[in-house]
Amino acid sequence: MSHEAAPPPLATAALLGRCPRCGKGALFRGLLDIRDTCDSCGLDLRAHDAGDGPAVAAIFVIGAATVGAALWVDVKFTPPLWLHAVLWPALVLPFSVLTMRVAKAALVALQWRHRRESP
């Protein structure tokens, strides 16, 4: 019989980038690199791979929103081309990284929840 604490909610683990088992340790070593093990509970995270899912999420979600926003800005305000060249990369890059971090953390948490061994 296991007396482990309940894992954190998926939204908490994904949005805060926390360990899917304990919810305390940081999931990321850098900007987008998953740690080998949780520094709090020791969970081995090497087997959990998010693959290309987070990048695809960023491309579809941020890409579609950016194209729509760029078209709206162009029609509404008619800015010079250089402004588009400066504005959109400055907005897209941070939102893409944020989207990839949250998606990667969510996929790792879901993999852990569905792959862990039954007690």
Automatic annotation (TrEMBL):
Top-rank taxon: Bacteria
Record protein name field: DUF983 domain-containing protein
Keyword terms, alphabetized: Membrane, Transmembrane, Transmembrane helix
Residue ranges crossing the lipid bilayer per the database entry: 55-73, 85-110
InterPro entries hit by this protein: DUF983
